[in-house]
Design goal:
Length: 212
């Protein structure tokens, strides 16, 4: 359990600064993650793309030896097995916890960023007007207008809603779940870190993990 907590704390510290936040969460009121003595935890990224799955799972599993990637145990060779048979594989391998991540939705939102006025220089009108004396409006506007106004523009943002679940295999039940929203995603590995940061922060807040 101590190693598990250390890993989560490390992820909290090294997480990137991407825009990821908790949307909602729930914990079993009768049990906390801190109460579970996790010694071997399976990490499952439920995504269709195999490369993305491995990237996400490897990102977490590489941080601590108690975390194991699911593709080592649940892969094409086990697809035809029943859920009971798959569960038995995990039990035989002495797993006592499971963390899953799955993409709930991907939404695009277009927002308008209004233009801004840079304003004029008010510190020396006399000198400015002396230099510009006799100029027509066309000459004056042509010289200063590029610095006077920045036009607005439309910006498209893609939001990724990811659900993170923590299961106790000993209790055979879900003990914590949370949904995060990530924007301006450019790197999958860094986003996984940011999701874990948000998850740890929320778990400390709701008592699932002890405070720092």
């Amino acid at each position: 359990m101590k190693k598990f907590l250390v890993l989560l704390f490390v992820l909290f510290l090294v997480s990137c600064s991407s825009n990821t936040s908790i949307v909602n969460s729930w914990r079993d009121p009768n049990i906390t993650v801190a109460q579970e003595n996790f010694k071997k935890v399976l990490v499952v990224a439920l995504v269709k793309d195999e490369a993305s799955r491995r990237t996400a799972e490897n990102r977490i599993a590489a941080s601590n030896p108690i975390f194991k990637t699911s593709y080592q145990y649940l892969n094409e060779s086990t697809n035809s097995l029943t859920k009971e048979q798959k569960l038995k594989i995990l039990q035989d391998e002495n797993f006592d916890g499971v963390i899953t991540m799955r993409l709930v939705s991907k939404e695009k939102e277009t927002t308008y960023v209004p233009g801004t006025y840079t304003g004029m220089y008010y510190g020396g009108f006399d000198g400015m007007y002396t230099g510009m004396y006799g100029y027509g409006f066309g000459n004056w506007y042509g010289m200063y207008s590029p610095n006077f106004y920045d036009p607005g523009y439309y910006q498209e943002t893609t939001s990724y809603m990811v659900e993170t679940n923590i299961f106790s295999l000993k209790e055979n039940k879900l003990i914590w779940t949370g949904t995060t929203k990530s924007e301006y995603v450019t790197d999958l590995g860094q986003t996984v870190d940011a999701i874990m940061q948000a998850v740890v922060k929320e778990m400390r807040k709701d008592g699932s993990l002890p405070p720092k």
